[in-house]
Design goal:
Blueprint: E1 5-6, E2 12-13, E3 15-17, E4 24-26, H1 39-57
Length: 58
Amino acid sequence: MGRPRLGGDGRYHGDLPCKWCETLIPQNGRRRPRQYCRTTHRVKNYGASLVAAVAGLF
């Protein structure tokens, strides 16, 4: 797996794995690295953390 590297211009270059499915996401000079390859993966991760928090209360 690659890691994005911060260039001298303040932009990220390289690949970063999606936090949900581990697919490599090219950063292509973004100011903030993309962490998810799809919006649905971001929503699924939020839902999973919310369920874990609620389950931790009981």
